[in-house]
Write a structure and sequence with these properties.
The protein is an alpha+beta fold. The chain is built from five helices and seven strands. It has one domain: 3-Layer(aba) Sandwich (Aminopeptidase). Helix 1 crosses helix 2. The relative contact order is 0.14. InterPro entries: Acyl_CoA_acyltransferase, GNAT_dom, Ribosomal_N-acetyltransferase. Pfam families: Acetyltransf_3. This is Acyl-CoA N-acyltransferase.
Length: 254
Amino acid sequence: MAYINSYEKPERSTLLPGYFGPDPYDINWAFPLYEETLESERVTLTPFIPSLHAQEYAAQVGVRPELHRWFPLDLSSLDLLLTEVEVRVRRNPSWILFAIIDKARGGAMAGVIGLINASPENLSAEIAWVLVFPAFQGTYVTSNAIGIMLQYAFELPSPGPGGRRGLGFRRVQWTAHSANKPSHAAATRMGLKEEGVLHWSWVLHEGAEGHGIPLRTGDPLSPRPGRHSVLFALCADDWENGGREHVQRLIDRK
């Protein structure tokens, strides 16, 4: 039997300079947002809207580029950030990025956190793009932001403990560069369990810090380096057997 392959590579601008997205901003997220679950006493997560949040993000990493040391994406300029938020996040209904707002410091933006590869078929997602600005590191902000995200992911759609509703996911995972020890520690502290290493899980941008293993001669994406990722996960049965209480204690810790 004869066959054909009519695939054409979709058009994708490599850069969308100055594009802050549509107005009004459509987050294009395939799941409900439960605002009452997306906040704690001190921190709120609100959808990242480039016109409100992108310039502050770019300003923070502009003076501290090492904040992106372990990131697989090139976010080294405002235009690159805007492009990734539009193409990789907003146009993909399985991704959402949140701005972390510190209510205890007058509503200041403290960083970003996202859910990616959210699957309604498998009730799973990954916490990713976690970045807390330097002035807020070492405070309650990181634990609150990650904890809120776990509550949003795991609580059932019907109101549960504390009146919170969530997406009812069965699994939430977290991957980190194999050398990014602070990220490993953050995942473990929040109760996620290490499951293994995903070898060659990302092709990084040129100049990024990879795993150091030489590429094969003729590699199609050479000289972009590769990344090994350590995989952590928390599941619904973990959540119902002490995980919820552990996360709440970290959120409440003074």
